[in-house]
Design brief:
By secondary structure, the chain is of the alpha+beta class. The protein folds into 3 domains: 7-122, Butyryl-Coa Dehydrogenase, subunit A, domain 1 (Orthogonal Bundle); 125-233, Butyryl-CoA Dehydrogenase, subunit A, domain 2; 243-383, Butyryl-CoA Dehydrogenase, subunit A, domain 3. 51% of the residues lie in helices and 16% in strands. Helix 7 runs antiparallel to helix 10 and helix 9 (317-342) packs antiparallel against helix 10 (353-362). It is globular and about 80 Å long. The protein starts with 6 loop residues before the first helix and ends with a helix. It binds acetoacetyl-coenzyme A (CAA). Acetoacetyl-coenzyme A (CAA) is lined by residues 84, 88, 92, 127, 129-130, 136, 138-139, 162, 182-183, 236-237, 240-241, 243-244, 317, 366-368, 372, 375-376.
Length: 384
């Protein structure tokens, strides 16, 4: 067993760290203004970070999942909003098209998605599974599609869609045969601007405010049959497999938030004095920092294990759920402790740790709540 990163992995980690330090500025201001990181995403694309696991023949970086989580942690450490834009594009959209797409779909959609650019314009994807009445219970898709000649006609609504107002390509899940339950769900590639497809309300959120989240509507929206992703009725499995990978990415995003919380706390504890000494010398603070560091290392090992298993072609649903469950939990805890260590300063915007808490909370909710991760883990245990 080897716990050392390879030289290649170290270089990727360093490149992501350097990129984040040099290019991801003004996270506080963008958070306050709920402003999408328009200037940053194309640069991430140029670095190969928007299509990390896409093969080079489709303009991707051709890297493995371990590289992806290393980069995700570094980017999210500076701004978790940028992290989620990157994560959805990589693991939920590019991965699905690369794995299940036809050659024509890959040429048309995967190429520009992998660089996040098309003709100099921002080009990213969104993953549209959740609905107003179907979040955790994802098999109950009310959005439906019927075949009309050489088109599928989509009707329905989607909620809480990351990259919703900025995406060019949407993977939309819809029921094509209600009688078959989860085996009657199919996946469609929908282009922005398609008639009958409307980008609706942009949400005002607790955290990850500079990523954009919105609801979508489909009214007699005609999608050419060649835009079905994978076979008819395979949509739910495509969603679940994509989420297996996606959850590792969100776990890495949580690691970034936890690592930032720890780093800021160590720095502050060395500078701030109380009772005649730096607060780092108080045992109460040392215990908090030691716990934060221990939990962060534990979570990182779980994330790397899940990514490594994915790279080895092993089954990894359970490990993906475990790493998301644990990393999101310790990220919320680390952010709370960071606020406590910073005292009054922790409660105000300037010291950033209050944003970490707001950003961390969503990692316990999206791409499957912690309760859903428990279901996935427990069912897998019972299967053994
Ligand atoms: N890989 C492949 N197939 C899978 C699978 C997986 N990981 N998980 C389930 N399946 C298959 C099952 O084998 C079953 O197939 P058969 O019909 O052939 O037997 C089928 O899918 C149905 O599975 P279940 O019976 O287990 O389905 P369920 O109704 O009990 O639901 C669930 C299981 C785990 C709760 C699932 O509904 C789920 O994950 N819910 C959460 C959804 C979610 O994560 N939403 C996030 C939205 S996306 C998002 O947040 C992105 C963003 O913008 C950031």
């Amino acid at each position: 067993m080897n716990f050392t990163l390879s030289e290649e992995h170290k270089l990727i980690q360093e490149a992501a760290r350097d990129f984040a330090a040099a290019e991801i500025k003004d996270a506080i201001e963008r958070d306050e203004a709920s402003e999408f990181p328009h200037a940053i995403i194309p640069k991430l694309g140029e670095m190969g970070f928007m299509g990390m696991m896409v093969p080079p023949e489709y303009d991707g970086a051709g890297m493995d999942a371990v590289s992806y989580v290393l980069a995700m942690e570094e980017i999210s450490k500076v701004d978790a909003s940028v992290g989620v834009v990157m994560s959805v594009n990589n693991s939920l959209v590019c991965w699905g098209i690369n794995e299940h797409g036809t050659e024509a779909q890959k040429q048309k959609y995967l190429r520009p998605l992998a660089k996040a650019q098309n003709d100099g314009k921002l080009y990213i994807g969104a993953f549209c599974l959740s609905e107003p009445d179907a979040g955790s219970d994802a098999t109950h898709q009310s959005t439906n599609a019927y075949l009309d000649g050489d088109h599928w006609v989509l009707n329905g609504a989607k909620n809480w869609i990351t990259n919703g107002t900025t995406a060019e390509v949407y993977l939309v899940f819809a029921t094509t045969d209600k009688s078959k339950g989860s085996r009657g769900i199919s996946c469609f590639i929908v282009e922005r601007g398609t008639k009958g497809f409307d980008v609706l309300k942009k949400e005002k959120k607790l955290g990850i405010r500079s990523s954009d989240t919105c609801s979508l509507g489909f009214t007699d929206c005609h999608i050419p049959t060649e835009n079905m992703l994978g076979p008819e009725g395979e949509g739910f499995k495509i969603a679940m497999k994509s989420l297996d990978g996606g959850r590792i990415g969100i776990a890495a995003q949580a690691l970034g938030i936890a690592a930032a919380s720890l780093e800021k706390s160590i720095k502050y504890a060395g500078e701030r004095k109380s009772f005649g000494k730096p607060i780092f010398e108080h045992q109460a603070i040392q215990m908090k920092l030691a716990d934060m560091a221990t939990e962060l290392d534990g979570a990182r090992l779980l994330v790397l294990q899940a990514a490594w298993m994915k790279d080895q072609g092993m089954k990894y649903s359970r490990q993906s759920a475990m790493c998301k469950l644990f990393a999101s939990r310790i990220a919320v805890k680390a952010a709370l402790e960071a606020i406590q260590i910073h005292g009054g300063y922790g409660y105000v915007q300037e010291y950033e740790v209050e944003r970490y808490l707001r950003d961390a909370k969503i990692t316990e909710i999206y791409e499957g709540t912690s309760e859903v991760q428990h279901i996935v883990i427990a069912r897998d245990l019972l299967r053994d």
